[in-house]
Automatic annotation (TrEMBL):
It comes from the Bacteria. This is Lysozyme inhibitor LprI N-terminal domain-containing protein. Keywords: Signal. One of its GO terms (cellular component) is extracellular region. InterPro entries: Lysozyme_Inhibitor_LprI. The lineage of its organism: Bacteria, Pseudomonadati, Pseudomonadota, Alphaproteobacteria, Hyphomicrobiales.
Length: 119
């Protein structure tokens, strides 16, 4: 078999594997395959940009949580719970959900900026 045919066969196998592979069914903070998703969660699962914002928000939240002293983590968690309720109030309105994520990310960065760092 020529190199060209071997390369074509290998590419076909790779493409078939990618096409048949299970699609990711998780946003960063919840399982998209659940049947009891709320309207905002369904919208996030169905919208790649919102899913990406969810990943960014959860990653940022977890990073900041790890940097805060124990006494401040509870307050951050309370703020997260309050924010989650406001995101859920958006229902399936993707613009509202995106604005909620942008506001939360801005708030999280404000927390990050206030963390004392050694000089």
């Amino acid at each position: 078999m020529s190199i060209t045919l071997k390369l074509a066969a290998a590419c076909t196998v790779v493409l078939a594997t990618l096409c048949l592979a299970p699609q990711q069914s998780h946003a960063a903070s919840f399982d998209c395959s659940k049947t009891d998703l709320k309207a905002d969660e369904k919208a996030i699962c169905d919208n790649r940009a919102l899913n990406d914002l969810d990943v960014k928000m959860v990653t940022t939240f977890e990073l900041i949580s790890g940097l805060l002293p124990m006494g401040n983590r509870g307050e951050l968690q309370d703020q997260q719970t309050t924010w989650l309720k406001s995101r859920q109030a958006c229902n399936a309105d993707t613009d509202c959900i995106a604005k909620a994520y942008e506001a939360r990310l801005k708030a999280l960065m404000g927390v990050y900026d206030k963390i004392e760092r050694p000089i």
